[in-house]
Specification:
Blueprint lengths: L3 E3 L5 E2 L9 E6 L5 H8 L15 E3 L5 E3 L6 E2 L17 E6 L13 H17 L7 E3 L22 H6 L10 H11 L2 H11 L7 H12 L2 H4 L8 H16 L3
Parallel strand pairs: 1-5, 3-7, 3-8, 4-7
Antiparallel strand pairs: 2-6, 4-5
Helix pairs in contact: 4-8, 5-8
Length: 252
């Protein structure tokens, strides 16, 4: 990708054991401006809600991109988190921040320029890194554990994951009748439904509500529009069943 501005954040180290990234995490900055986020990433200011942090990349509202950490290095963006059995997410992932004030400061739509740049950047990253589509995630997907300070909502339900999937980035469920038939079985058995969420990758230690809400932020955003987040229905189960089939069928 051309025209990437480069800075060097001090907040990085080596990937544990020299592993290669297999996960891509999307975030929002939770700041009014990109400059405010940049000041945190460059340690010009201390983030009052976190220790030293850094993404690999940040995308401004106008679509411009800044790189803070080289892809070969371990940036500090995921915090204590969990996905599909992996706990050192920072060592195994790449992190991209999108400038957006976030839920606590007036959550707004991501701009078309941001989305276009995001698609271009991720496609470029995927040419160098073997990251399967089911491991392209939001911060909310890897952070639903109830014992932490609070769940992470970013990048949130306003991110157009469906459009990204149409661009070949990540997955978007398109359940058919078979998925709905199986969903009726899953939905009738909360234990089996929870096991299916864990099989897809979600933290088994999160509460049912938090795991379902995290799933819906990514794959069923209308649940947030309808104010029923955290409550599964047969559509939730059908989408989950479709995603499990796609994950299990994936081969690079």
């Amino acid at each position: 990708m051309k025209n990437i501005r480069k800075l060097v954040s001090p907040n990085f180290n080596d990937r544990a054991g020299g592993v290669q990234p297999k996960i891509l995490i999307l975030h929002y900055t939770g700041t009014a401006t990109g400059q405010e986020a940049e000041d945190y990433y460059m340690n010009r200011k201390a983030d009052p809600n976190a220790g030293p942090i850094s993404p690999h990349y940040m995308i401004e509202r106008d679509g411009s991109v800044t790189q803070f950490v080289e892809e070969a290095n371990r940036s500090w963006h995921a915090g204590k988190s969990w996905w599909d059995g992996e706990q050192d997410i920072n060592s195994h992932s790449m992190g991209i921040e999108l400038v957006n004030p976030g839920h606590d400061k007036g959550y707004i739509d991501f701009t078309p320029e941001q989305m276009e740049s995001l698609a271009e950047l991720v496609k470029d990253i995927l040419t160098r890194n073997d990251i399967p589509p089911h491991n392209i995630l939001g911060h909310s997907d890897i952070f639903p554990h109830v014992t932490r300070d609070r769940v992470k909502p970013d990048p949130g339900e306003k991110l157009d994951w469906e459009w990204l999937a149409e661009e070949g980035i990540g997955m978007w469920p398109r359940p058919d009748q078979d998925d709905y038939d199986m969903a009726a079985v899953l939905y009738a058995d909360p234990v089996s439904l929870r096991q299916a969420f864990t099989e897809y990758g979600y933290d088994p230690n999160g509460t049912d509500h938090d795991v379902i809400a995290a799933f819906q932020r990514h794959f069923q955003p209308e649940a947030y529009v309808q104010k029923r987040q955290g409550l599964a229905d047969q559509d939730t189960a059908a989408r989950l069943h479709w995603l499990l089939k796609a994950k299990n069928a994936y081969s690079p």
